[in-house]
Amino acid sequence: MNAKLLTSTAGKTFAIVFDKQEEALGGLLWFVTENSVPAAHFTGIGGFSGVVLGYYDWETKSYVRIPVQEQVELVSLIGDITTEKEKPMIHAHAVIAKRDGTTLGGHLLEAHVRPTLELVLTESPVHLKRKYNAESGLPLIKI
To answer: For the segment 108-143, what is each residue's pLDDT rounded down to a tens digit?
Structure first.
């Protein structure tokens, strides 16, 4: 992985370029921990050799896993970094495109980079924290 600080005026902005075979969420978690980024938002594009998306089932309060074990284009990635129990938490949604142009989208649970993943991550000036919400079964941002 390579990273470069783009700006540090209102909040730091980083360009992060992942290498082939890196696991996207694990790499991003490592980066924000190493660079002490407690809250941020990010966007990205690239490609994956395999990905697992998720659909949150309200009734079961769990994610239905949607594995895609083929080369795909990442046409949109958007997410945020917040703090839950004093640790960074990544919340990301992705839209991927298959060879025939059909798309799938959902919560990004797992992704292996191929050939690249290019993210722009901007630190938030106000640190956002998450707190467990019993009704949804999810840790939601508490403002």
So the answer is: 999 999 999 999 999 987 777 899 999 999 999 887
pLDDT tens digits, one per residue of 37-68: 999 999 999 999 999 999 999 999 999 999 99
Query: How do the domains of the chain map onto residue ranges?
Result: 2-142
Per DSSP, what are the bridge partners of residue 23? 112
With 0-12 CB in 10 A as exposed, 13-18 as middle and 19+ as buried, what is 23? middle
Q: What single letter denotes the amino acid at residue 130? A: R
Look at residues 33, 34, 36, 70 and name the one whose alpha carbon lies nearest to residue 51: 70
CATH number, domain 2-142: 3.30.1330.80
Look up the pTM and report it.
Answer: 0.88
Strand partners, 68: 51
First-to-last C-alpha distance (Å) of the chain? 33
Instruction: Name the nearest CA neighbour of 35 among 6, 58, 76.
Output: 6
